[in-house]
Amino acid sequence: MAKRVGLEVTVAVAEAVALCRIDMAGVYPITPQSHIAEHLSNMVADGLLDAEFVTVESEHSAMSAVIGASGAGARAYTATASQGLLLMNELLPIASAMRLPICMAVANRAVSGPLNILNDHSDIMPQRDTGWISLFAENSQEAVDLSIQAFRIAEDQDVMLPVNVNIDGFQLTHMVEPVEMPTQEEVDQFLPPFVPHATLHPSKPVTMGAFSMADYFTEIMKAKDEAIRNSKKVILDVWEEWGRLFGRSYKPVESYKADDAETLILTMGSMGETAQLAIDELRDKGVKAGLIKLRLWRPFPFAEIKAAVKNTKKLIVTDRAVSFGGPGGPVFSEIKSALYAETTRPAIYNYIYGLGGRDITVHDFVGMFEKVLADTENSSADTYEFWGVRE
Amino acid sequence: MMNIVENFDLFAPRLINKQELLSSGHRACSGCAEVLAVRLMCKALGENTVIASATGCMEIVSSMFPTTAWRVPWIHVAFENAAAVASGVEAGLKALRKKGKIDDRYIKVVGMAGDGGTMDIGFQALSGAMERGHDMMYVCFDNEAYMNTGIQRSSGTPMGASTTTAPAGKISSGQKTWKKNMPDIMVAHNVPYVATVCPSYPLDFIRKIEKAKSIKGPSYIHCFSVCPTGWRSPSHTAISMGRLAVETGVFPLFEVENGHYRVSPDMPKILKPIRDYFKPQGRFRHLTAEEIDLIQERVIIEHKKLMEKAKYLKTGNE
Ligand SMILES: Cc1ncc(C[n+]2csc(CCOP(=O)(O)OP(=O)(O)O)c2C)c(N)n1
Ligand code: SF4
Ligand SMILES: [Mg+2]
């Protein structure tokens, strides 16, 4: 039976990854991820985790080493944040093109400059188009569950793609929350041993990472796009099975009091729980407010988003990253383009908030609703605004 | 003493593995001594080898999708990370072997890159992998410039050589810096085995690769790789050019085992003048007599330093 324990989220994630019986980890320290690296090392040092922990000299080498290990047929894991993720950037599309089922935690942290160690999503957003499956955790239980599910999804023969699990830095990574840890038997039952397509082994020599000219490149790109689109079915199946085994169900888009809502707000990651409190407060005041939470960032859940906002009049999209000189926050652009062809669609507002660890309270979410509801002519819809900025 | 290299045809069938693990049909330039070195390396290593290659000439000429020249498992990821990828392959294989998920034969993991991929952009990854002590061999195929991208200078380009980013011009004599001493930097990492090789000396080459293969830990091989295209030298002279580099002391052949230096028997007692080596190469054609003298002086000093190290840091039983 699963045990309910109080753990720091980074530690819980490391324990979850150990339950997945990884063969190899290559992790470089960076706040607020480092506790994952440290706890994995501790488990290896104590003989609790039978894996090679490679103390790489950079995140670039961390990703390179897990690519090498995964190519050799090992179940390989890494974790990073912010500058570390940007340093890995060059290798992310290579990992997905090579169809290596690497799993990675991202302890989301603002990107320099100025240097800032606190939470926002400016590290993961630039990685959007690297061909990785991208999941967002809202609380410690989700961080644990998604970390285990990630391997199952990545290694599915119909997927074979890398997966990143986003865990808001500090706001989530450093929380101590009660979490139900699955047992080793339960994880073994859920996650079979990794069966790679091809490996770097002399018994059957293969060439990995050949270069391609214009004659094949487009086809390879299309194949990768199809692979990640098709992964959605597997993701849904895996979540369905998880629900059956563990009683916790996962959906690409979660909703809270959204069914009859006239105004919806969309969040990603740890902000969901705070927004939920704001919805309760607004409902008490008689406002038909609701919340949708985007858990699956890539592949983007078009159908679920369309269905979730079908009956709403106004939609507030929140973003924790900036697309400088662009059309608004990255999530906002995505939602707008997803709804572009719909005959009826809500007026969409965009607030960019919580940058570099700026605190977001229930009060802030209530304020967003009030501002949007006061805009009866929808005159500030379709544009973006920095929330809570000092002028 | 009989010169075995001159009687190569007689000895070769017995000394060299007949298996071609790097097949013909690759796209290297004619007379490329770098690809010859890779071929020899594969022969010396045998089939229980996994190679992680950096971006560069050897990667491009051997792996155009959907073709491949490789008969050993081979992976290319990017330009600056061959050592890191190799270290991951090594760690992965080690874990799988330990858990009984693969058979327990010994597999040599090899990282390979050009001078740029080793001495410049890949320097950090190499330093990290060597310091961590992975059981892997790393080979730098040094053709003294970024050849794949059009003969730009690297920190392995020799003083005075004209390249496309350090060209000889009205007020410039080409490369303005001395070649980085990569083997010594690897010795400073306390790598158990460091050696310099040149495919113009195939038996010395094979022996050193076999030695590196036998080391259960990191080893570093620095391979002098004549590139007729980049050096603007006739393609039929690639082998003799390698020999001239050794005979002039420009590229001395030696090995360092646990800090002990040994100069290869192929090294001449008296060095030829570097002029002999410079003359057939277009990249040195602009140099004045004074400039050549300056380089000559440096070659002699470096050679003396090496001889001193070999004298005082020699292996116990020699
Ligand atoms: C990050 C990055 N920067 C630059 C390049 C372009 N590039 C590819 S190969 C190469 C030069 C390779 O030189 P070297 O390592 O000496 O190998 P050679 O081709 O000479 O054998 C360069 C600059 C790249 N692929 N990746
Ligand atoms: S450019 Fe030089 S190193 Fe590259 S393939 Fe041609 S001869 Fe060989
Ligand atoms: Mg080169």
Mind explaining what this structure looks like?
The complex is a heterodimer of chains A (391) and B (318). Chain A has 391 residues and is an alpha/beta fold. Chain A has two domains: 3-246, Thiamin diphosphate (ThDP)-binding fold, Pyr/PP domains (Rossmann fold, 3-Layer(aba) Sandwich), CATH 3.40.50; 253-386, Rossmann fold (3-Layer(aba) Sandwich), CATH 3.40.50. Chain A is built from twelve helices and 16 strands. Chain A has a seven-stranded mixed β-sheet, sandwiched between helices. In chain A, strands 10-12-11-14-15-16 form a six-stranded mixed β-sheet, sandwiched between helices. In chain A, helix 12 (362-374) links the parallel strand 15 (347-352) and strand 16. The mean pLDDT of chain A is 97. By secondary structure, chain B is of the alpha/beta class. Chain B has a single domain (28-312), classed as Rossmann fold (3-Layer(aba) Sandwich). Helix content of chain B is 38%, strand content 14%. Chain B has twelve helices and ten strands. Chain B has helices at 8-15, 33-45, 57-62, 82-98, 115-120, 123-132, 182-187, 202-214, 228-231, 238-247, 274-278, 289-312; strands spanning 49-53, 74-76, 108-114, 136-142, 168-169, 172-173, 193-197, 219-224, 254-257, 260-263. Chain B has an eight-stranded mixed β-sheet, sandwiched between helices. In chain B, helix 2 (33-45) packs across helix 8 and helix 4 runs parallel beside helix 6. Chain B is globular and about 65 Å long. The two termini of chain B are 19 Å apart. The interface between A and B is large, with 46 and 52 residues. Bound molecules: thiamine diphosphate (TPP), iron/sulfur cluster and magnesium ion. Magnesium ion (MG) is lined by residues 114-116, 143, 145-147 of chain B.
